[in-house]
Design brief:
It is a single chain. The chain has 373 residues and is α/β, with parallel strands linked by helices. It has two domains: 282 residues, 3-Layer(aba) Sandwich (Rossmann fold), CATH 3.40.50.1820; 72 residues, no CATH class. The chain has eleven helices and eleven strands. Strands 1-9-8-7-6-4-5-3-2 form a nine-stranded mixed beta sheet, with helices on both faces. A two-stranded antiparallel ribbon has the order 10-11. α3 crosses α11. The longest helix has 21 residues. 47% of the residues are buried.
Length: 373
């Protein structure tokens, strides 16, 4: 596989957070959609990538009143939780329950969110997007990955960034009820969605996609995650929940002993993720599941949003890496699925001083709304 960027000092600086400074006007690297986006400009005291990554969960809106439906996965083994936040409209007379009733499709658009590693419909970004979609009068759903959302896995297969068959199954199931589907993927879910739209081309079920804070180049992302603050702060947060799930699965005493000693996500991927999902090793998994080589084949309109200071990401996609259907947006700040804004009384006189996580859902919906119009 060719390297995503030449191994120059500039490209290595890009990976390890020593980026050259650029103006906010350079956020859009490609924009075939022609959408006019609002730049992300946090105040200087809120621009730290770790603040941007950690703080949003404390300012997320309330958990929506989801409607949960359990649907079998693409292997017909495990139940998967689909959490819906339905629009308040009159055309909602056919509710998905995993079966086809022959009723007419719903005309109001559906926004589908594929969450990140160990995320769920309760994640801060899911809540923010759900409320924004609902306020727009559209439908929203989070189809969880296997083992997530409080529903235990029943087979040996969990989830990976390369499982495009599961993404296709999710969207195909939903397309039986909804005529217009827009897909959003964040972090690992974004990597899986990017893989999907690249691999399936014009056969992708969604009309458009938005990929946010996604490790499209997984080898460099793994290196980035294991360095400095990222390793000390984020590795336990990501690793501990999935280790507990793995230990509840059917494992040998040797596997249990090895997993309990793991200290890095890549070690878990090598010992558990790779062999369970048809990969030779973690290296083979990261190589084959990287979406970057597939972005040149994307046909559906796709927005890719990345922050240059994201502590989880390595190499980012550049204009030569993507097709003419892809809009590339890079922000100077934002951390990992952060994009936390601060509104002063001058910006919002009625609310006074406030933090909010609305920039990301507003950006994604502006993209979809432009295409829908």
């Amino acid at each position: 596989m060719p390297l995503p960027n030449p191994l120059t000092r500039a490209s290595l600086n890009h990976v390890f957070n020593k980026h050259p400074k650029s103006s906010a006007s350079s956020q859009l690297l490609t924009n075939p959609s022609g959408v006019k986006f609002t730049p992300f400009r946090p105040p200087f005291w809120l621009s730290n990538p770790h603040l941007q990554t950690i703080l949003p969960k404390f300012f997320a809106p309330a958990i929506p009143n989801y409607r949960r439906v359990l649907v079998k996965d693409s292997l017909d083994e495990s139940d998967v939780a689909y959490d819906f936040y339905d629009a308040d409209d009159s055309d909602f007379d056919s509710k998905i329950d995993g079966k086809t009733h022959g009723k007419r499709q719903i005309d109001t658009p559906l926004v589908v969110l594929f969450h990140g590693m160990e995320g769920s419909s309760d994640s801060h970004y899911a809540r923010a997007l759900a409320h924004a979609v609902h306020a727009k009068g559209w439908h929203f759903v989070v189809p969880h990955f296997r083992s997530c959302g409080g529903v235990p896995v029943k087979g040996e297969v969990f989830y990976t960034a390369g499982d495009t068959d599961e993404i296709h199954h999710n969207l195909t199931t939903l397309s039986q009820t909804y005529a217009t589907i827009y897909a959003v993927g964040v972090s690992l879910g974004g990597a899986a969605l990017a893989n999907y739209v690249g691999k399936f081309g014009d056969e992708a079920v969604c009309q458009a996609a938005a990929v946010v804070s996604a490790p499209v180049d997984m080898p460099s992302a793994a290196i980035k995650l294991h360095r400095g603050v990222g390793h000390r702060v984020y590795t336990p947060y990501l690793l501990n929940p999935i280790i507990q799930k793995a230990l509840s699965n059917q494992l040998s005493e040797t596997e249990i002993s090895q997993i309990k000693r793991l200290k890095r996500v890549s070690d878990f991927d090598h010992l558990f993720t790779a062999p369970r999902h048809g990969y030779r090793s973690a290296t083979d998994y990261y190589h084959r599941a990287s979406a970057l080589p597939r972005l040149i084949d994307v046909v559906r309109p796709t927005l890719i949003v990345s922050a240059k200071d994201d502590p989880f990401l390595g190499f980012l996609a550049t204009p030569p890496d993507v097709s003419d259907s892809v809009t590339l947006m890079e922000t100077e700040h934002g951390g990992h699925i952060g994009f936390l804004s601060y509104r002063s009384p001058q910006d919002n006189p009625k609310a006074g001083k406030s933090f909010d996580v609305n920039w990301l859902p507003e950006t994604v919906l502006a993209y979809f709304d432009h295409l829908n119009a």
